[in-house]
């Protein structure tokens, strides 16, 4: 019979294991996600016959999926009693869906041909139809890619003071994995193994991560820690704040402004910066393709550099936010 003294160390070991696996999950899934992106750009290039249009279609679907997935799940993440298990199911779903990429691409080509023969659209409408068809098949997996971050944040972050640093750590790991996946896909996997084998590798990674996450979630459940990777301090308190007075003090110190101009300019600023970032990505890909003579290498070089900057920025933000509360205005 296990004594109470043995249960504490055992639970701590399970938590540490879950945390390490979680970091590995998000790093590796980031690599798989960008392998898909490079492959999708290459495949849609066959449909569009134009690198800029292919890159624009993939980036539109990719970023829309990430944004809507993250937003939709973030409003429901608190309902998940087993967030790591939900994360595992999402990764499995992404892998299973991506396995049908070539079938879905054939659907796009057939639909595209049928519409072209039936309607004979003009160049502008033609481009819009291709974009819409591409968006239709790429949005679902990207939606769940975006949904994984809020779910893992729910799993890891349980103190207000660590929301900023914890989220930055997970985002940074995911983006660092994305850099590795981009470089591997563009400069190693596609040239040496081809499109189908590279896609199969990414599918295996996603499904393997998902299954392993479900196993780790089960271990946490058996240890009585199904909903959390971070044990709650004794007495049911979080973040070292005691009593109603302490909680009120914490709310007063860390709460975001309840109104004012910041609620208008902050979302607008984030939206504009996102638009400009995508314009840069498409433009830099076009410029590099003219220099390098290869659209795949151009896209890979642009995307890996872009993501490396995001990963480094996220790492710096983690250290900065760990030393101060996350606030909109001081």
Would you give an account of this structure?
This protein is an all-alpha fold. It has one domain. Helix content is 82%, strand content 0%. It has nine helices and no strands. Helix 1 (4-48) runs parallel beside helix 4 (101-119), helix 2 (51-74) packs antiparallel against helix 8 (262-292) and helix 3 (83-98) packs antiparallel against helix 5. The longest helix is centred in the middle third of the chain and has 60 residues, at 163-222. The radius of gyration is 22 Å and the shape is globular. Mean pLDDT is 76; it is low at 1-6 and 226-258.
- Percentage beta strand: under 5%
First and last CA, distance: 54 Å
Total beta-strand segments: 0
Helix/sheet category: mainly alpha
Question: Count of helical segments?
Answer: 9
- Major sheet attributes: none
Could you list the spans in which at least 5 consecutive residues all have pLDDT below 50? 1-6, 226-258
Q: Summarize the amount of helix as a percent range.
A: over 70%
Rg from C-alpha positions?
22 Å
Number of domains as seen in the coordinates: 1
Mean pLDDT: 76
The coarse silhouette is globular
Would you spell out the secondary-structure blueprint of this structure?
Blueprint: H1 4-48, H2 51-74, H3 83-98, H4 101-119, H5 123-156, H6 163-222, H7 243-254, H8 262-292, H9 295-322
Helix pairs in contact: 1-2, 1-4, 1-5, 1-6, 2-5, 2-8, 3-5, 3-6, 4-5, 5-6, 6-9, 8-9
Short description:
The protein is an all-alpha fold and 330 residues long. The chain has helices at residues 4-48, 51-74, 83-98, 101-119, 123-156, 163-222, 243-254, 262-292, 295-322.
